[in-house]
């Protein structure tokens, strides 16, 4: 663990050197924000995310990243606002749509979460992670027919490199 933290601190230092050379380096601020977030240093992370957005406000990734930070801090209204801003900039960004759907589920708005996942499927119709999460939502809702439908679609569309693929491989190893 300490070795990993050391690498993060080393990376932060390198990005800070980059910022000293180019104070308007929005990517450097964004990456520092992400690294600080991993360390649980949320206030510092927020500062860097906001700085990245101030420099380059039309980058959907920056809004997505601060949305994820706000979600971790349970600042759900700010998280939603950030995700929606990211989607205003890039309406077909499935990664942001996926995060927004997770947020809606987290705050207990399952209907909105389902609609948001379905919006992701309109853009990326074979996303096994979306199918998998929809399966769980319907299972929790007590709808085994829809749950099985989405779980089947997830398995059908599961490809190497996806979260579901990784979960399946882990389960396969545990079965041995």
Helix content: over 70%
User: Strand tally, please?
Assistant: 0
Strand content: under 5%
User: Judging from the principal axes of the Cα atoms, what is the shape?
Assistant: elongated
Uncertain spans: 171-176
How is the biggest beta sheet arranged? none
Structural class by secondary-structure content: mainly alpha
Query: What string, H for helix and E for strand, traces the elements in order?
Result: HHHHHHHHHH
Mean pLDDT, nearest integer?
90
Short description:
The protein is mostly helical and 176 residues long.
In terms of topology, how is this protein built?
Elements: H1 2-21, H2 26-38, H3 42-55, H4 60-72, H5 76-89, H6 94-106, H7 110-123, H8 128-140, H9 144-157, H10 163-175
Helix pairs in contact: 1-2, 2-3, 2-4, 3-4, 4-5, 5-6, 6-7, 7-8, 8-9
What does this structure look like?
- The protein is mostly helical.
- It has a domain at 126-176.
- It has helices at 2-21, 26-38, 42-55, 60-72, 76-89, 94-106, 110-123, 128-140, 144-157, 163-175.
- The longest helix has 20 residues, at 2-21.
- The two termini are 29 Å apart.
- The relative contact order is 0.06.
- Residues 171-176 have low confidence and may be disordered.
Keywords:
mainly alpha, 176 residues, 0% strand, disordered C terminus
